[in-house]
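Translate sequence into structure tokens.
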Amino acid sequence: MTTMAERLEAARVKIDRAREAVVSDEGASPVLVAVVNEFAKKADKAAASLDERVAVIELEQAGDSAKAAAEADPGVSRATRDAVLGGWCLSRDHTHNPLRLDSRSGRRSGRIRTL
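Result follows.
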């Protein structure tokens, strides 16, 4: 099983690719660029953080904002939107959160999805 640090690093790499896609997409709005840049900053912070719990919460919040911005931006390409949604999926799972600690045991639960 992968460690939390490995999961956060994998998320950071995917989110950085999404940031690169958004920055190079001429149809992306300035708002989307700013929101995804913030998502990438939170991913960098999470990957380097000693307090994984707080870092994951911040990463999830930034990811939710990036997802909403990508879905709402009418000018962004499908490939760029998919890259942002891929980063969001890696930071949050629809049925349970693979990065979050189990509140009862304090252990990390679940697996991170690979897209």
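Note: Confidence is low (pLDDT under 50) at residues 101-115.
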